[in-house]
Design a protein that fits this description.
By secondary structure, the chain is mainly β. The chain folds into two domains: 78 residues, Chitinase A, domain 3 (Roll); 49 residues, Thrombin, subunit H, CATH 2.40.10. Strands 1, 2, 3, 4 and 9 form a five-stranded antiparallel β-sheet that branches. Strands 5-8-7-6 form a four-stranded antiparallel β-sheet, with no helix packed on it. A hairpin with a 3-residue loop joins strand 7 and strand 8. It is elongated and about 60 Å long. 14% of the residues are buried.
Length: 145
């Protein structure tokens, strides 16, 4: 049986949890996650852990925040005047919004606080700053040509 190597397409079943056991994602009930090893299609720490595994291998790995979604960046947390929001939006904590960059791109935001005159939004990935634990099982390896 051959090991997964960079360039191979692999399919894995997985469950992702935070270090406190809170599940944030799982392939259960869905097709396995398919990606090309070494192509930057998934977080780098998980990509590295799958390399060298064989079909049928299972393991639990902890991916540090730096190899997942990076550290939480305080510069990505900003206060915005409520008047800057469209009038039909009533902001609530946990609400997801989108902002436009000067270049026309979109940035997802999460409302973290609502006050009378302003709201606080966070543009960090929701899992930034978190170490992530994955239970993984390799279900298929398609060798690179």
């Amino acid at each position: 049986m051959s090991e997964a190597k960079s360039g191979d397409t692999v399919r894995i079943n997985y469950t992702g949890t935070l270090t406190d056991g809170t599940m944030f994602d799982s392939s259960e009930g869905r097709e396995p996650l398919e990606f090309q090893l070494g192509a930057g299609q998934i977080i780098s720490g998980l990509d590295r852990e799958v390399e060298g595994m064989k079909v049928g291998d299972r393991q639990t790995v902890t991916v540090p925040a730096e190899q997942a979604y990076g550290p939480h960046d305080a510069a990505k947390v900003q206060k915005v005047p409520r008047a800057a929001l469209p009038p039909e939006i009533e902001p609530q904590q946990g609400m997801q919004l989108q902002a436009r960059t000067p270049q026309g791109g979109q940035v997802p935001l999460v409302v973290t606080a609502v006050e009378a005159e302003e709201i606080t939004v966070d543009a960090n990935h929701p899992l930034a700053g978190q170490d992530l634990v994955f239970d993984i099982e390799v279900v298929e390896i398609v060798k690179a040509a």
